[in-house]
């Protein structure tokens, strides 16, 4: 565990990149998510939480239900509870965004996957 100033304490690596949990409270959770160039997260939805995504580095393409939304640094999108969503990094550099979750439950088992580039179910 790294406790230097400005460093995060919990990091979870995935095939598309990694995330760091910045805050985990009973009514909300905050993550810093890094997506590698050319990678994307699974197409998914959550029944127990909504999410707010704010891009802090790079460019993203967010799929939200039947829309594709391009976002750049400083732009945000709200993912409603039950909304089918994914984020992709179309760029040549890492894309980083802050995810704020709100709801009743924040466990990784509240992910219902529809498509996944890495064969996860």
Give the strand order, joined by hyphens, for the main sheet: 1-2-3-10-5-8
Order of helices and strands: EEEEEEEEEEE
Question: How many beta-strand segments?
Answer: 11
The oligomeric status of these chains comes to: single chain
Overall outline: globular
What is the CA-based Rg, rounded? Answer: 14 Å
Tally of contiguous helical segments:
0
Gap from first CA to last CA: 29 Å
Please, what is the CATH homologous superfamily of the domain at 27-108? Jelly Rolls
| CATH domain topology of the domain at 27-108 | Jelly Rolls
Strand content: over 45%
How does CATH name the architecture of the domain at 27-108?
Sandwich
List strands and helices in order, with pairings.
Layout: E1 10-14, E2 17-24, E3 28-35, E4 43-45, E5 49-57, E6 60-64, E7 67-71, E8 76-79, E9 85-88, E10 95-103, E11 112-115
Antiparallel strand pairs: 1-2, 2-3, 3-10, 4-11, 5-8, 5-10, 6-7, 6-9
